[in-house]
Specification:
Elements: H1 2-42, H2 48-72, E1 80-82, H3 84-101, E2 104-110, E3 117-119, H4 121-137, E4 143-153, E5 156-162, H5 170-173, H6 191-201, E6 205-211, E7 215-223
Parallel strand pairs: 2-4
Antiparallel strand pairs: 1-3, 4-5, 5-7, 6-7
Helix pairs in contact: 1-2, 3-4, 4-6
Bound molecules: adenosine-5'-diphosphate (ADP) and magnesium ion (MG).
Length: about 230
């Protein structure tokens, strides 16, 4: 136990340091963005391509830092007994605006009388956001995403998020969750790493089923108590 405690102390220190560095990078970034905008206004049009590249690369650094902060932020972690259906409803509401823009509809199927689960609600919400966002992003022509929450057995629930997007080739499935693995031009490759880590902390597991051309299902098994 002592060894475990020491290990988690070290992890906390590393996390706090990382969060500190991320904040320190963010401040000069904001200044840079501001001055670039000023410059852009006072320089000839010929350079607009350069400014677009600079701005989009700065935005990219910013999103990497933001996703990283979610993981590293030494926020108050509070495990509570919560209704996972409510957490999922709130997540879907949060992303609905983005989904509607690309004609995606998210459909929630909740089994009756699901038990409350012992979890960190903000972190679970972050996982659902990350996985649902990915699902929306692979359905640029629109369609339906099914979200199902069921009881798996006496001690576990299973949350399934099923899209009808591009699918993932079998040899790429094991790369999911590796830091910076992304196939998107503007991706960070951090969303799934953060999600897998949170599920691991909840003593849960993530399973991925996918078929190229027809879609992908993320199945998250979570213990009701741990
Ligand atoms: P990002 O979304 O920034 O690329 P993620 O960690 O969220 O980073 O996802 C990593 C990669 O996993 C994505 O770039 C994509 O290739 C793949 N992926 C994740 N979810 C899906 C999905 N629902 N359908 C197809 N590919 C996916
Ligand atoms: Mg993502």
């Amino acid at each position: 136990l002592e060894e475990q405690l020491r290990k988690s102390d070290t992890l906390n220190v590393v996390g706090e340091l990382a969060a500190g560095i991320a904040h320190e990078i963010r401040n000069p970034m904001t200044a840079l963005k501001g001055f670039i905008q000023l410059l852009e206004g006072s320089i000839k049009d010929d350079y607009s391509l350069y400014f677009n590249v600079i701005t989009s690369e700065l935005n990219r650094i910013e999103s990497i830092i933001t996703e990283f902060l979610i993981l590293a932020r030494p926020q108050a972690i509070q495990y509570l007994k919560k209704d996972i259906g409510t957490i999922m409803k709130e997540t879907i509401d949060l992303l609905n605006g983005q989904a509607i823009l690309v004609n995606v509809q998210m459909e929630l199927y909740l089994e009756q009388e699901l038990p409350l689960i012992y979890c960190e609600p903000n972190q679970l919400k972050q996982v659902f956001i990350n996985i649902l966002k990915n699902a929306i992003e692979v359905m640029p022509k629109g369609g339906q995403i099914d979200v199902k929450i069921k009881r798996k057995d006496e001690k576990h629930l299973i949350v399934s998020i099923i899209d009808r997007g591009l699918g993932i080739p079998e040899d790429k499935i094991k790369r999911l969750g590796q830091p910076f693995y992304t196939t998107k031009e503007r991706g960070t490759g951090l969303g799934l790493m953060v999600s897998y880590k949170i599920i691991e902390e909840h003593k849960g597991i993530v399973e991925v089923e996918s078929e190229v051309g027809s879609g992908t299902a993320f199945h998250i098994t979570l213990p009701i108590n741990h």
